[in-house]
Design goal:
The structure is a single chain. The protein has about 1250 residues and is of the alpha/beta class. It is built from 21 helices and 71 strands. About 15% of the residues lie in helices and about 25% in strands. Strands 41-42-45-48-53-56-60-64-67-70 form a ten-stranded parallel β-sheet. It has a nine-stranded parallel β-sheet with strand order 43-46-49-54-57-61-65-68-71, with no helix packed on it. It starts with a strand and ends in a 15-residue tail after the last helix.
């Protein structure tokens, strides 16, 4: 047996062995058999002293050596500069880095003594102390060297007190325990103000007690059975001057473990002030607050340390840096920055470091006081006024701790002084904050700004993850769940999920998988191992990260022991009863006691056993390599210590990991308490024990949402400090929020979310920080479209796990909050609208009792004075009898079809292939390139008056660049569209145009891409705002992304401020007479085509739409009645692969949807709200195989009695694979009958859709040939 021990130290004495703040040293008699356990430091060339003072956690020492240089040094974006080992070296030194790590304290073996009875022996160890010692207690644990078992007293250290009058503590053996003191400089103040409850002297302060007069009264410090040791590492720096390139090449190498970040800058003179040098920079470099640079060093091939090279211009005086290991560990040179001169004549000053007061780290979290960090702040030069504040605080502390004060001042007086100290501290902090420079945002492109890399940690993933649970409690019953889920992978990806949680994969006693048996047998009730591999591979192909559900707390045995107890395991991991905790009464384990709560249905695994941890580490790594799992969902983590989880995460290195820590919330007489801090504290403690390597499901938030929504008590959604009341309010980056899972819902229903309130719950978690998780049963239900819309809002607004929340209202019937100051949301039946201030807000989506996303969209941009004039033009373009136009259109289609059927067999191979009335107007002309402007005569439908640039000159675009937003280069598309005259814009050659910011059209323009291949892609889209008479023809628009905005010229005479563009491919805003024809559109961040704010007289024809969520929006929101004049024809288009919804979605206006081809929409095809008129004629609707999406139509925000009055009519449509159209409103009244003559649409129009839309999308036309 071995005794591991520590000491509990009196208030005015600290154990000599391992404590930092010495007041008096205890006299401890040495015992020869004591052995100090520590890591052997690696050998170094020089032994250097550690700095006694440091601005960061750890000191550093200075040593010198000449390392071997690499043969070549290079950096991304920089010229490769050849070096040699023998010449040009101007500087070469090695700095030794000393930092502290923890290890076990003193280990002492027992001595065997004579037996008390035959066959028995006992052991003892003697620890002798001086009678004058001031050590208050000894702590120890026991270890059996043969079995490796550890023994504690009721799960904690044994404690043997050496003084009397200690408070009750169940861990003490015949003694009592008291309070701890405040460490550090405020220790004396604390000893005066804090009195023990059981102090015998009422008028005497603890600080005046004499240990010589009586024993110590319940006042001591505890030190855990660990000690700190010094870990030694080095960083080597060498500099070589390259005359040929006029560069200094600095090479930095260190043997520090893990990721090492260099926080660096340069000095241009002897002032030693930090500056950022000119580019290029090494890989993985970001700019930090415009004050310094941060570079993540590259791992060596053997992963034993890291390195980096820096190529810098001549003329710089020095290179300065510090090293960052993690949030709490910075390394510097004896309290100063490392200072590397570029000239050999400059001597290194060991004691003159550089101030870095302006480059401190910001906190990323809300800052729960329950999670403490140890990072110290850097020293700052402070002005005289702050000196005055510091002196006042010192005087107050001296006053309160003086003997005279203690005799005269009451407790109330002490409290007043403490309040004054707090006020002064707050004032000092406000001065500090106001002194920080505020820099205006530079209007730079993405190429000009170094974007920080996305930080990937296993506790957060990228921070932008959206998790779906890929199963429910019944999923195992088919026996082929992996195959069934494989069919839904594309759907899940299109909905926006980035991570999926799969069911437990192992052989299990229970079919659901949560009673695992043979961990290496992956043939389960969900499918076999091969099917699992195929599923994981497919999920990776569609961009979804995969989590495996691993049960580490317990495992079912396969054999019984001699007593008939099931505690012998089989399979590859054939453990015996030593792997089972000793305090589980059902399975006779011989391991140590459990480090958590027992799960009584199966043997609980003892993770303190090294052989168990080794096997689990290897198993997790095997799962990652063999199956391809990217991370873990950890089951029942209440059952074992989070420190073991850290060990497993460090070994398996998951992309993302989340634990299930589920216990009961706090209730009083059956009613949930408002304050749930104790509950979320337990979850936070577990996360903290894992060192943040895993997140945890936010059970606290789920429980609070239950009461808030079910009882209409929305005030519960704010804690006492005005923050979210769950884990998401304390540690949002590690909180995985959810409302339902396979245990709480599904067929188990252990804690089902309030019925009918599910979407309010999702509105909350999908707009707030944390990582939201959506349950499988809700994904594939009637909630799917709303969940999809919320995910789209979250992604569009870049809400992530660390987003900020400002709660605006938390009252009885309403909760409202602002997220990241750009997204407002409200849930509950009560009223809330965000105040406009300098912004306008528009409703992104709306549901029953929730408006979770009110954002500032295009309407917040600076509007030009022509807005009112543009709306008047829209009113003039409005047709008061729209059905006359629809009948005329139908008749033209009928004539075209008759001509097609009657003459097609007489045409030669090279004859006209046009199949609809718009195409036959121009495509049958071989000289179309000479007669381009005849295209303007071909528009039909509501946009039939559009002429574009027909009355103007041709403009030839020969330059695809888009660099200058103020003075565009002649020959570019942006320069062309800014001209005030009508223009017909054509292109000299094929090109890809990456728009730096939105392309803002002016009136009377045609963009004609025929004859070449023109792609507008990978940048901003086209904005048609406050203009009229626009034609966009025969181009590709795809992969449109949001852009930053800024000062953008929108006419030759005006440049204005634009806010961030949303990522629409084409946005039509208060404009009229617009024709979009033969355009291929896909993959925009927001919508492909938006028609909003009173736009009208628009035709969208012959276009092809693919791979997008929100395809076409006609009408901005329910409150904008200006869209009542909107009239849009949607004709001859193909709505093809990967489309989800809005084809179109209509508010207020009139949409004629005619002869379009719809294939396999994933939510719905045609939708609307705010009583629009939708006439669907001659379309072909082909539904997907999913049973919930057969309906073509979807109506929002109205009861059935209301929407039955809306005129939505279907005439001549073809429905395939179960598709159906729900009609409403009065029947059509035709001024011209479509039932006679050449108009055959009513009877069999759907059969002609394939022909009519055959050439939809951009055409590859060649001059001199039919197009």
């Amino acid at each position: 047996m071995v005794l591991n021990k520590m000491s509990t130290v009196a208030t005015d004495s600290l154990l000599l062995l391992h404590h930092h703040h010495h007041i008096h040293r205890a006299s401890l008699r040495s015992i020869p058999k004591f052995q100090l356990i520590s890591k052997k430091p690696p050998p170094f060339h020089l032994i250097c002293s550690q700095a006694s003072d440091s601005r960061f956690n750890n000191g550093a020492s200075l040593c010198y050596r000449y390392p071997q240089l690499p043969r070549a040094l290079s950096s991304t974006g920089a010229a490769v500069v050849e070096t040699s080992e023998s010449s040009g070296i101007t500087f070469s030194e090695t700095f030794e880095l000393n930092r502290t790590e923890k290890d076990y304290a003193i280990e002492t073996p027992f001595e065997t003594k004579s037996a008390l009875r035959e066959g028995q022996a006992y052991y003892e160890v003697t620890i002798e102390f001086s009678k004058k010692t001031k050590i208050a207690a000894i702590n120890f644990v026991l270890k059996d060297d043969e079995s490796g078992h550890w023994y504690q007293h009721r799960g904690r250290d044994f404690k043997v007190p050496l003084v009397d009058h200690l408070h009750n503590d169940e861990n003490f053996i015949g003694a009592k325990k008291g309070l701890g003191i405040w460490p550090g400089a405020l220790g004396p103040l604390a000893s005066i103000l804090l009195k023990p409850e059981a102090a015998e002297s009422k008028g005497e302060d603890i600080g005046e007690l004499s240990l010589q007069n009586r024993p110590l009264q319940s006042f001591y410090e505890e030190h855990s059975v660990v000690k700190e040791i010094v870990a030694c590492n080095t960083v080597s720096v060498s500099v070589r001057h390259c005359q040929e390139k006029a560069k200094n090449i600095l090479y930095l190498e260190t043997d520090l473990p893990g990721d090492v970040v260099v926080h660096w800058g340069v000095c241009r003179d002897e002032s030693k002030s930090w500056e950022i040098p000119a580019e290029p920079y090494p890989p993985e470099t970001i700019i930090f607050k415009n004050k310094a640079l941060r570079t993540l060093l590259q791992q060596k091939n053997d992963r034993d340390g890291s390195w980096g090279s820096f190529v810098l211009d001549e003329g710089l005086f020095a290179f300065v840096f510090v090293l960052k290991l993690n949030e709490n560990t910075w390394l510097n040179c004896k309290g100063n920055d490392f200072y590397i001169p570029f000239s050999s004549s400059v001597a290194l000053d060991e004691h003159s470091g550089l101030s870095r007061s302006e480059v401190k780290e910001d906190h990323e979290e809300y800052g729960s006081p329950m999670i403490s960090g140890s990072a110290s702040e850097s020293k700052e030069a402070v002005p005289a006024y702050t000196d005055k504040i510091i002196n006042e605080i010192r005087n107050l502390v001296n006053d309160i701790s003086s003997e005279k004060s203690r005799e005269t001042k009451s407790k109330e007086a002490h409290e007043i002084i403490l309040q004054e100290i707090e006020k002064l501290a707050a004032e000092a902090y406000s001065i500090f904050r106001s002194s920080l420079p505020t820099l205006p945002e530079a209007n730079l492109s993405k190429e000009e700004v170094l974007q920080p890399p996305v930080k990937i940690t296993s506790g957060t993933g990228s921070g932008f993850e959206i998790l779906c649970q890929g199963f429910n409690w019944e999923s195992h019953k088919s026996g082929k769940w992996y195959v069934e889920l494989h069919e839904k992978t594309s759907k899940l990806s299109s909905l926006g999920f980035t991570v999926i949680w799969l069911p437990p994969p192992t052989d299990s006693v229970s079919p659901e998988g949560y009673m695992p048996r043979d961990l290496y047998n992956l043939n389960s009730r969900y499918g076999n191992i091969d099917q699992l591999k195929v599923l994981v591979k497919r999920l990776h192909e569609v961009g979804i990260t995969v989590l495996g559900d691993v049960v580490l707390n317990h495992r079912c045995a396969q054999y019984r022991n001699q007593n008939g107890v099931w505690n012998i395991f089989g399979g590859r991991l054939n453990w015996d009863d030593r792997a089972i905790v000793a305090d589980d009464p059902h399975f006779q384990g011989r391991g140590n006691k459990s480090s958590g709560d027992n799960f009584h249905a199966a043997p609980n695994i003892d993770h303190s056993q090294e052989f168990v941890r080794k096997d689990i580490r290897e198993w997790l790594c095997w799962l990652r390599e063999e199956i391809g799992y990217d991370g873990w969902r950890l089951d029942f983590v209440r059952g074992f210590w989070g420190g073991y989880v850290k060990d497993y995460m460090d070994s398996s290195m998951p992309y993302f990991a989340v634990g299930e820590y589920w216990d009961s919330l706090s209730y009083t007489y059956g009613e949930m308490d408002h304050n749930q801090d104790a509950h979320r504290q337990r979850i936070v403690d577990w996360i903290n024990a894992t060192n943040g390597t895993a997140g945890a499901f936010d059970v606290t938030t789920k429980g609070i949402l239950h009461s808030a929504l079910e009882r209409c008590e929305y005030w519960r959604l704010s804690d006492a400090k005005g923050k979210p009341p769950g884990v998401v309010g304390w540690w949002p980056s590690r909180a995985v929020t959810f409302i339902e899972n396979h245990d709480t819902g599904s067929t188990q229903g252990h804690w089902r979310f309030p019925s009918g309130k599910e979407m309010q719950g999702y509105a909350y978690i999908l707009t707030h920080p944390g990582t939201p998780s959506v349950f499988y049963d809700h994904i594939f239900s009637e909630y799917q479209s709303e969940i999809s819309a919320l995910i789209s809002v979250r992604k569009r607004n870049k809400i992530q796990c660390r987003s900020t929340v400002k709660i605006i209202k938390a009252e009885r019937d309403v909760y409202a909050a602002m997220i990241d100051e750009k997204l407002a949301m409200k849930i509950g039946p009560g009223h809330y609208e965000p105040s406009n201030g300098q912004q306008n807000w528009s409703l992104a989506i709306e549901g029953r009792d929730y408006k979770p996303a009110l954002r500032s969209p295009l309407s917040t941009r600076i509007c030009r004075s022509g807005a009112a004039e543009s709306y008047q033009e829209s009113l003039q373009a409005y047709n008061p009898n729209p059905q006359d136009l629809t009948d005329e259109f139908n008749e033209l289609v009928g004539k075209t079809l008759i001509n097609e059927n009657g003459t097609r067999r007489n045409l030669g191979e090279d004859d006209c292939k046009a199949t609809n009335p718009i195409d036959r107007c121009w495509r049958c002309d071989r000289d179309w390139a000479k007669h381009r402007k005849r295209l303007a005569d071909c528009v039909r439908g509501f946009g039939h008056h559009t002429t574009g640039g027909k009355k103007g000159r041709y403009y030839l675009v020969d330059d695809p660049s888009d660099d200058d937003m103020d003075h565009p280069k002649p020959g570019t598309l942006r320069h062309a569209i800014l001209q005030t005259e009508p223009l017909w814009i054509i292109f000299k050659h094929s090109m890809v145009i990456k728009l730096k910011n939105e392309l803002i059209m002016t009136s009377d323009k045609t963009i004609d891409g025929r004859g070449v291949l023109v792609h507008i892609a990978y940048g901003a889209g086209i904005t048609i705002q406050f203009v009229h008479n626009i034609i966009i023809h025969n181009i590709w628009i795809h992969d449109i992304v949001p852009t930053s905005g800024g000062m953008i010229r929108d006419t030759l005479s005006h440049i204005g401020l634009r806010t961030q563009a949303d990522g629409d491919a084409i946005n039509i805003y208060t404009s009229s007479n617009i024709w979009i024809d033969h355009v291929s559109l896909s993959k925009g961040t927001d919508g492909l085509i938006d028609v909003i704010e009173g736009s009208t007289a628009i035709t969208i024809s012959n276009c092809k739409f693919n791979h997008h969520n929100d395809v076409m929006l006609l009408g901005a929101h329910e409150s904008n009645s200006r869209d009542a004049i909107m009239q849009v024809t949607v004709a001859f288009n193909r709505f093809g692969k990967g489309l989800i919804q809005r084809m179109p979605r209509v508010r207020w206006g009139f949409a004629h949807v005619v002869n379009n081809d719809y294939s396999h929409w994933e939510l719905y095809a045609i939708g609307g709200s705010a009583h629009p008129t939708i006439i669907s004629q001659g379309n072909r609707f082909r539904a997907s195989n999913y049973r919930y999406t057969k309906e073509v139509t979807k109506r929002d925000y109205a009861t059935k009695d209301e929407w039955m009055k809306w005129q939505w009519r279907s005439e001549g449509d073809m429905f395939k694979n179960g598709a159906f159209f729900t009609e409403s409103g009065k029947p059509l009244e035709h001024s011209k009958s479509p039932l006679v003559g050449m108009n055959l649409i009513r009877y069999r129009p759907g059969t002609f859709v394939g022909t009519l839309t055959r050439w939809a999308g951009a055409l590859k036309c060649r001059k001199g040939k039919l197009c």
